[in-house]
Fold:
Amino acid sequence: MSTEIIQETKTEKLTGAKIFLECLREEGVDEIFGYPGGVILNIYDELYNCDFIKHYLVRHEQAAVHAAEGYARVTGRPGVALVTSGPGACNTITGIANAYYDSYPLVVFTGQVASSQIGNDAFQEADIVGITRSCCKHNYLVKNVKDLPRVIKEAFHIATTGKPGPVVVDLPKDILTAKMEFHYPDKIDLPGYNPKYDGHPIQCKKALKLLCEAERPVIIAGGGIIHSDAAAEITELSQKLGIPTATTLMGIGTFPQDDELSLGMLGMHGNYWANHAVSSCDVLFAVGTRFNDRITGCLKRFCKDAQIIHVDIDPCSISKNVPVDIPIVGDAKNVLKIMLKEFESGKYNPQKELKEVWLSQINAWKEKRAMPVIHSDKINPQTVIQKIYEKTKDKDAIIATEVGQHQMWTAQLYKFNKPRQLITSGGLGTMGFGFPAAMGAQIGKKDKLVFNIAGDGSIQMNIQELMTCIDYNIPVKVAIINNGYLGMVRQWQEKLYNKHYSQTHITSPDFVKLAEAYGALGLRITKEEEIDEALDKAIAYNGPVLMDFVVEPFEMVYPWVLAGSPLNKVLLSNDSPIA
Structure:
């Protein structure tokens, strides 16, 4: 009689650092942005031989998060950043807040001191959970290595579902060295988190009926259209019902700007006719916007005679700033599909004759346009933006901006006809965002031409990322609108503070020499006739380019609705009365 010896097969135990990378693999993450430090060296040690994740070493942790957001914006996938504890974690806050206010999915992993040291003021300890509580969608402090797979799966789920946003996961050092058998969860169990995706059909019917009966309807398309991939649906509804459509800054690209029903951008620096159309409408259909003060102006007078329909996946956004008559909680794409299907029933009459009268009125408003107000021998900054548009419009380019005058000129003058084509900081207005975000966008869409339009002030906030671009051959083209001032702040000082230009004149390095020192191509443009050649050279160059456009320093951004004024009280030039 033979004795059969059966050996039990044991699952290999992995360290928390190895589990971390395996979890990223399970989530399909193949590119991350980060900066190493002491408490996360175990992760970086595992990255040393990792063949399924490409790590991009940035030069500042803020840039890691902005780059991750730029990646998320163009791909629709969550961006991932990895930083160390203390100052490394603290440097991510601006990037986390930026993604939170503009609703883009990020998972930011921060190192933390060992669990036994938390609360003891240990070296490089910071309460990142407490610090980020108000500016992220959710955050975690991992207290047991057994929780790590579940926490990471939940983090990606929360970041990408419902209203997208950043999730922070704080990783104590001892969690990364502890071992356990690795099993990735098959499902999520979050009883208190259940985003509503399907709008109520009765509310959708009410909204459609009201829009069809309206004489002066307007649609506002916000950033939620991009998140739900609903650009085709909002365009179809607008065209079938004959309703003019305006976009918020974050919604630019969701409605083709060359369409006859396009009103372009509304708001503080939006089109004159868009602001007047919204102010004079009898029915406003707002989709995926939180009614930021930059698009409403004086809240008490915003659409005071209109009935308002508001679609948003976040119930907390509805009636938060503007009271609405027909609230619809749900995903924009799903709601619009319900309305389009209902419209095909043939039970609705869009009142096209009345709407034609309305469109005629809007076309009359379009006669009033803002014009450049300074005439000098220097380059007009608007001309640079227009030239960039002419050179890139047929190349399906991605355009990032920093924050300031150049940002508003780009939004006004570049005709964006596709979603995810403009990358800009809306809710937080973060100077220094554009360059690292452009870098992340270029990594996310390697075959695209990516421009970053910057100011001479904002570019200096994260210009160190030029080295990252050189190291990884990330061919972002940077166009600096160099006016020698913090332009938008100077504009306010000129109009509202008696030209007291307090601390807004800013000096800059020689950008051409700086670019060359990093190993990039630097170009300086001082005359209008030099613009075409410089742009052609930059586009053809296989690598990062820094272009220094020396422009008229005192040009202003118009139209302009002064803060606190009604949306339809619009300044068109320095000397014009409010129109």
